[in-house]
Amino acid sequence: MSIVFMGTPEFAVASLQAVLDAGLDVTRVVTQPDRPRGRGRKLTASPVKDYALRAGIEVWQPGRIREPGFVDLLRELAPEVIVVVAFGQILPRSILEIPRFGCINVHASLLPWFRGAAPIHRALIEGEETTGITTMYMDEGMDTGDMIIRAPVSIGNDDTVGTLHDRLAAVGGVLLVRTLDLVFQGQAPREPQDHEQATYAPMLTGDDEVIRWNLPAEQIRNHVRGMDPWPGACARFSGETVKVWRVETVPSVADESEPGMVLSIDPDYGIIVQAGKNCVVIKELQPAGGRRMPVDAFLRGRRLTPGTLLK
After folding, report:
1. CATH of 2-197, one of 3.40.50.1010, 3.40.50.300, 3.40.50.170, 3.30.479.20
2. Predicted pLDDT at 254
3. Phi, psi of 277 (to 5 degrees)
């Protein structure tokens, strides 16, 4: 069965690897165009492109997959199934109708919850204890197609986006191979989603990075780990914007203090900050242009005193 694989970020690499390891025939890989990255803004290939080229698979990189020329190329190739994993563009009907076995998507949540571009981040930010992987038949909506397989994945108390991402990616690869086997045998179920139960995980913006100190301490902790290792939760004080990478929660010692106020500073313990309810202890930070560092290293050469207000 000939497969076209569409994917872009590191999350999709595990699925592509699993399909290839299973001996399935990936005839083309479609990924986003190379993008400028880093301080030098050097054009950089996507992780999926890198992996596909090392595996000897031809790669296509259309600017917009809706362009008639690209759709015609796909029709000519006539894949029997198209697999989509975090590709980055919504497939139009003209593409959805090409493969006889349909277009199959791997999504990093238990649909219909957390539809959208940032399901891993949002699940952590919302303090969920369980998320998962769903494979589904694609339609023209945003993650609205009929489900094939769902597999739950527990979220640990200390999980970050990085750790959860890697576990979900691995599960996604396993489920994709099982799904394709069912599809090719004509035994894949089609379970319609309950659209009334749907929740959404929209793409992150700069506003999402900013810590809201008026939130309860536990919500701030979830926000911080839901931004680690990318894009990072931010706070601003004394004219400097820093990324906050790790916090713990402690009971309030001064509930009358304004949220965001530094209550105490101990280089060996952390910076205690008043939240909307209880307090957070900042354990790891990153100054602008610097590296991640523990509190004691951050405080060297900086004047930070109790009463300072973080924003």
Report:
1. 3.40.50.170
2. 62
3. -145, 125
Tokens at 203, concatenated: 């793409």
Structure tokens given for 237: 């004080």
Tens of pLDDT, residues 249-278: 999 866 678 999 999 999 999 999 999 999
CATH classification number, 206-299, choose in 3.40.50.1100, 3.10.25.10, 3.40.190.10, 3.10.450.50: 3.10.25.10
For the segment 207-249, what is each residue's pLDDT rounded down to a tens digit? 999 999 999 999 999 999 999 999 999 999 888 899 999 999 9
Nearest to 159 by CA among 207, 221, 116: 221
* Cα Dmax for the chain: 69
The answer to pTM > 0.85 is yes
Q: Which amino acid is at 251?
A: P
Query: What's the rounded Cα separation, in Å, for the pair 165 and 170?
Result: 9
The values of phi and psi at residue 216, to 5°, are -60, 150
pLDDT one-digit tens code per residue, 134-168: 999 999 999 999 999 999 999 999 999 999 999 99
Q: Quote the CA–CA distance of 128 and 184 in Å, as a whole number.
A: 34
Round the CA-based radius of gyration of the chain to a whole number and report it.
Answer: 22
Residue with tokens 């991640």: 292
Residue 152 · residue 143 · CB < 8 Å: no
